[in-house]
């Protein structure tokens, strides 16, 4: 359920962000503008939740290995390539004007080119994950706690609350994921006992900080006639590592972990969320969605604008969900029958070749081989 909610947050964020023809920050400060700024602010919370779900289980692996991370990347890449090339071909047939040469090039190497930033950042994180996990295990609880505290102070508070990235602090992509992973790993290994009350406290505290900052900066910017204050009213929601975003996301995942119920329908829908992200955030599709079909400017003055916008967000999610269900059916009868088989075969062949080469080198260097 949290995966579904996280993806709806991300779609809502993209809906406001990618409406480039409509500048929300320039609109008069009102309850409607405040509501849309809140929807915009959900984006990084959704990203943090989406990644935390993966980190929640990754950090519990007893023997993390590079080979396992590479296999995960291999399996992930099949879906990424399916959508990058599939969407490219469909749009090339139906609406070629939306596709640029840059989109074509990136679609053939989506992960390496950063076509979807989350995919690229997550793959790089997977490469580092085994080493980080083993290193955190080695330093023990006390040093791990100190590391979390330092990171929370430096990135969560100093970088998060003070504009201008004091001391040159910044994070981007996979660095955000490493930071979040370190915090999640500490909670899972040494705590993992916070109940509903603490979860709601984290969510409430983070939400209060976030909403207050938006309201205050918008109000002061309007009253004092300082446009820059209004432009940066969502500053605290602009990164996964800023304190209110982390508080809300961590509270949500603890809340979800405390709920003991199971639904096959929810699990089925949740299995499509990554595909939903790939489809709606494919650059040419994103242009069609937010620049042509669902313009915020066309409904903003309506008294039911917020309801229309929520309906659009759910509609986009639903259509993408159906498409990914079709993709799952195709994969089920084709490449998912032996998921990762090619990778296992290739990695085994490489490992065996390395072993054979080592044995041959050892035999050639042995005294007995010289005598013979």
Topology (SSEs and partners):
Elements: H1 2-17, H2 31-58, H3 66-94, H4 101-108, H5 110-113, H6 117-161, H7 174-191, H8 196-223, H9 227-231, H10 243-258, H11 264-270, H12 273-280, H13 283-293, H14 305-333, H15 341-365, H16 367-371
Return the average pLDDT rounded to an integer. Answer: 86
Give the number of DSSP strands: 0
Q: In whole angstroms, how far apart are the ends?
A: 69 Å
Radius of gyration: 24 Å
Shape: globular
Treating each run of at least 4 consecutive H or I residues as one helix, how many helices?
16
Structural class: mainly alpha
Protein architecture, described:
- The protein has helices spanning 2-17, 31-58, 66-94, 101-108, 110-113, 117-161, 174-191, 196-223, 227-231, 243-258, 264-270, 273-280, 283-293, 305-333, 341-365, 367-371.
- The model has no long low-confidence stretch (mean pLDDT 86).
- It has 16 helices and no strands.
- The radius of gyration is 24 Å and the shape is globular.
- It has 372 residues and is an all-alpha fold.
- Helix content is 76%, strand content 0%.
- The relative contact order is 0.14.
- Helix 2 (31-58) runs antiparallel to helix 8 and helix 8 (196-223) packs antiparallel against helix 10.
